[in-house]
Amino acid sequence: MSSGEKDLTLRPMKWGVLAFAAVIAVFWTGCSTDFDLNADFKETPVVYGLLDASTDTQYIRINRAFLSDNIDALTLAANPDSIYYGDELSVRLDELNNGVVVQSWNLERVDGDTLGIPKAGGTFANIPNILYRLIAELDYTHQYFLYALNANTGKEISAQIDIVDAFAITRPDDASLFPQSISLSPQNKYSLLWKSAQDARIYDLIMRFHYREGIYSPEGDSIHYTFSGYKDWVIETNYTTESTQGNLTIQFQVDGASFYNWIADAFEPVADFNFIRIADSAQFIIDAGGNELYTYFQYNNATLGITEGQVSDVYTNINGGLGILSSRYHKVGKVYPFAIQTRDSIACSAVTSGLNFAPDGGTFGFPFCQ
Asked: Distance (Å, rounded) from C-alpha 258 to C-alpha 265?
């Protein structure tokens, strides 16, 4: 397929990481027993990429599936030379505007381990961690066409996608000039609002919980802070919408009881009576994913049931290979303080009391619950 042609094949993956090992496993387990798995073997590249217009650096993983008559699959999986391409693979990304190429880049072959991007452990070799990198600003009003060629075999792979657009969080309103706070008790819900992203169909939602820790000095009635940081609460994954149209208001009810239960699980009590935690503030982080991701989840949920006799065909939008090329937009909202009542509830509610959180500084008895 030329870079000007539009790929209309439907295809998809779990957020952030393609389980390409599971995809490759289809070659080992997803076949009937009446033919030779190793007969007439065809080169099968396996691709994972999520292009993101919110950052100027893109990484795409391209590995290869493999079989051998003489070496077992687990041994092959542990050998980097079996799963990675060398210099024979060239990878290019074209930027298209109405089908016309306006820019092209040759992606750089890099080792993620040297860039602080380690590969998750498992059956497959994780050292080195070969990726293909592009440093460039992406235009979410354009389309992008991936093309790779194995110069030794002539094998070609390609995929074309739209890019997920930027979008805004509207509650809490990042554009507002007026003071805002986040109020959430075990008995209520918080209405999180955002505008849908053009070409997005699926969302992951995170609340980043900012807090401090320190030692309370009764003599000086003061706290000496020793730590400031945050923990991320994954509110929802794979939240889907009916449309990929942009600028539609989406509302999600953040459940207060779930939030307080998360705090109870995320923090351990400290025996020192004067050890104090302060619940400072929160921000929302939303990842909007392309329609290919949505289709991937729908397809695999429908075809990979635990009672199924064999693995069905793997969903892919990679012409000439397996895997997925899609897009996301990573939106990090502003930081907002917790309301006074929320600080008091985190410190003193039946669910979270005993975790050394202090109530609001203006509450009688601070830093202890009375």
From this structure: 11
- State the Rg of the chain over Cα: 25
Contacts 24+ apart (CB under 8 A), 174-183: 174/333, 174/334, 180/336, 181/336, 181/337, 181/338, 181/339, 181/342, 182/281, 182/282, 182/336, 182/337, 182/338, 182/339, 182/342, 183/338, 183/339, 183/341, 183/342
pTM for this structure?
0.81
pLDDT at 179 over 60: yes
Distance in angstroms (rounded) separating the CA atoms of residues 356 and 364: 16
User: Which tens digits make up the pLDDT trace of 267-278?
Assistant: 999 999 999 999
CA separation for the pair 287, 53 (Å, rounded): 12
Cα distance between residue 43 and residue 317, in whole Å: 17
Q: From residue 26, give the alpha-carbon distance in Å to each of 13, 36, 363.
A: 15, 14, 60
3-state secondary structure the chain: CCCCCCCCCCCCCCCCCCCHHHHHHHHHHCCCCCCCCCCCCCCEEEEEEEEECCCCEEEEEEEEECCCCCCCHHHHHCCHHHHECCCCEEEEEEEEECCEEEEEEECEEEEHHHHCCCCCCCCCCCCCCEEEEEECCCCCCCEEEEEEEECCCCCEEEEEEECCCCCCEEECECCCCCCCCECCCCCCEEEEEEECCCCEEEEEEEEEEEEEEEEEECCCCEEEEEEEEEEEEEEEEEEECCCCCCCCEEEEEEEHHHHHHHHHHHCCCCCCCCEEEEEEEEEEEEEEEEHHHHHHHHHHHHHCCCCCCCCCCCCCCCECCEEEEEEEEEEECCCEEECHHHHHHHHHCCCCCCCCECCCCCCCCCCCCC
**238: phi then psi, degrees, rounded to nearest 5:** 60, 40
Q: What is the pLDDT of residues 186-242, one digit of tens each?
A: 999 999 999 999 999 999 999 999 999 999 999 888 999 999 999 999 999 999 999
**Rounded distance between C-alpha atoms, residue 362 and residue 342, angstroms:** 13
Contact indicator for 330, 52 with CB cutoff of 8 Å: yes
168, pLDDT greater than 90: yes
